[in-house]
Amino acid sequence: MTADHIRQPAEPATPTIADTPSNTEPARRPPDDPGAALTPPEQVLRPHAEQLYADELAALAAEDELPRPPGWRLSPQAVVTYLLGDGGKISPKYVGQRRLMEVAVATLATDRALLLLGVPGTAKTWVSEHLAAAVSGDSTLLVQGTAGTAEEAIRYGWNYARLLAEGPTTDALVPSPVMVAMRTGAVARIEELTRMPSDVQDSLITILSEKTLPVPELTTEVQARPGFTVVATANDRDRGVNELSSALRRRFNTVVLPVPASVEEEVDIVSRRVAQLGRSLQLPEVPAAVDEIRRVVTVFRELRGGLTADGRTKLKSPTGTLSTAEAISVVTQGMALAGHFGDGVLRADDIAAGIVGAVVKDPVTDGVVWREYLETVVRERDGWRDFYRAARGVL
Predict the structure, then answer these.
(1) What are the residues facing 252 on neighbouring strands?
(2) Domain end position, chosen among 256, 288, 310
(3) CB burial readout 201-224, b (16+ within 10 A) else e
(4) I want to staple 174 with a disulfide (CB 3.0 to 4.6 A). Which of 89, 127, 157, 238 is the partner?
(5) What is the torsion angle, in degrees rounded to the nearest 10, for the CA atoms of residue 66, residue 69, residue 71 and residue 73?
(6) Closest CA to 213 of 173, 256, 268
(7) What is the pLDDT of residue 12?
(8) Which residues of the chain have pLDDT under 50?
(9) CA distance 33 to 46
(10) Are residues 229 and 158 in the same domain?
(11) Chain-centre distance for alpha carbon 56
(12) Contacts of 295 (CB under 8 A, 6+ apart)
């Protein structure tokens, strides 16, 4: 943290927002900032979006002639193209309604923060990461919300060894990801905002409304540079959720990400992500298994919706969410089983254990729901006898 990035009210010559570089050259984090040096993507298990899709981002930037908001790497239209794909060299990162992504990107082009809301597994974190990568080229300025998240994670902390030795100085101050984003004109991400204690959540109010972060210990403040914004994610289904105050909620534009609208859309999402994960994890090659992926998706959709696909039979729903993210996990585990312990073909035996584990979170309540589903739906369904035997075998 250097004095150049904190406005000193007593010194008029100190840089302010007006000193920000031009739109075409957004300010980036200095080399001494946390996370400035990233490990090469080939050496990590999961590269950041801006690393994994660097070629796509570069291609879009090179061809993008549309106006860019201050501090943005791409125009809003190019950001949406990056998210949804163009049917060619730009792969889709989000499969869903285009208008939702347009609203989300338009929000970031204003002075409003963005709240991505939805049930677990609706790609909120995924969209948040890719928005940050496309807008500011940096998705690493992240605060993870938990019940134990302290206010320092939003504002700033102190290096206590230096604080004791020198007192409060700029060198003793430890900037939060939000502070770094403010002084570099980048996107700050906050995951699971509603899991934070309410008083910690409300520390965002001044930041979002005034675009200023006071540092009273130094009699200074950090003013946000153009390009700064906040993308937060939250869900209200899980336990342990703290509702946002009305004052904080007013400072966000909310976009609700729904579950996939159809079986085909969800199968497409699962297929794409499983293929990406398989390459990243270097799993043994397993031929495309759309039939088994469709089976997993069908089971999940029927149980979470409480109705069979033909609309004839009402079902009890388990306590879990049975999200698309969990379906991806089940299929990925099945691919590992098929590749390492099977014949290299994804079969019912490979996915049965994963599905049972995803459905039966509560051995008593969910066990009853799952057994009823097996006996009343799966056993009678044409072509599902192999899955019925495999699922019964792991109960």
Answers:
(1) 113
(2) 256
(3) bbbbeebbeebebebeebebbbbb
(4) 157
(5) -30
(6) 173
(7) 40
(8) 1-35
(9) 22
(10) yes
(11) 19
(12) 348, 351, 384, 387
pTM of the shown model: 0.84
Q: What is the DSSP letter of 211?
A: S
Cβ atoms of 29 and 35 within 8 Å: the answer is yes
E strand or H helix at 245:
none
Alpha carbons 101 and 81: distance in angstroms, whole number: 10
| Residue that is written with structure tokens 């004109």 in the block | 185
- Does 248 share its domain with 369? no
Residue 231 φ then ψ, to 5°: -115, 115
Tell me what pLDDT residue 4 has.
44
Residues 6+ apart with CB under 8 A from 59: 89, 90
Q: Residue 117: in which H helix or E strand, if any? A: strand 113-117
Bridge partners (DSSP) of residue 213 are 222
CA-nearest of 143, 127, 149 to 179 is: 143
Instruction: Name the nearest CA neighbour of 211 among 187, 228, 233.
Output: 228
3-state secondary structure of 4: helix
How far is residue 353's CA from residue 341's CA, in Å, rounded to a whole number? Answer: 14
Domain housing 309:
263-393
Those residues whose C-beta lies under 8 Å from the C-beta of residue 374, and which sit 6 or more positions away, are: 388, 391, 392
Place of tokens 């031929």: 287
d(CA 317, CA 320): 8
Torsion angle defined by CA atoms of residues 246, 249, 251 and 255, in that order, rounded to the nearest 10 degrees = -150
Instruction: List pLDDT tens digits, range 130-170.
Output: 999 999 999 999 999 999 999 999 999 999 999 999 999 99
- Interstrand relation of 142-144 and 212-215 (parallel, antiparallel or unpaired): unpaired
- Determine the Cα–Cα distance for residues 149 and 256; give it in Å rounded to an integer: 24
- CA-wise closest residue to 298 among 350, 263, 272, 270: 263
Closest to 180 measured CA to CA, from 236, 139, 234, 237: 139
Task: Please say whether the beta carbons of 232 and 115 come within 8 A.
Answer: yes
Task: Please check whether residue 182 is in contact with residue 222, taking contact to mean a CB–CB distance below 8 angstroms.
Answer: yes
- 20 and 27 in contact (C-beta within 8 Å)? yes
**DSSP at 13:** T
What's the CATH number where 85 sits?
Answer: 3.40.50.300
Location of structure tokens 């899709």? 53
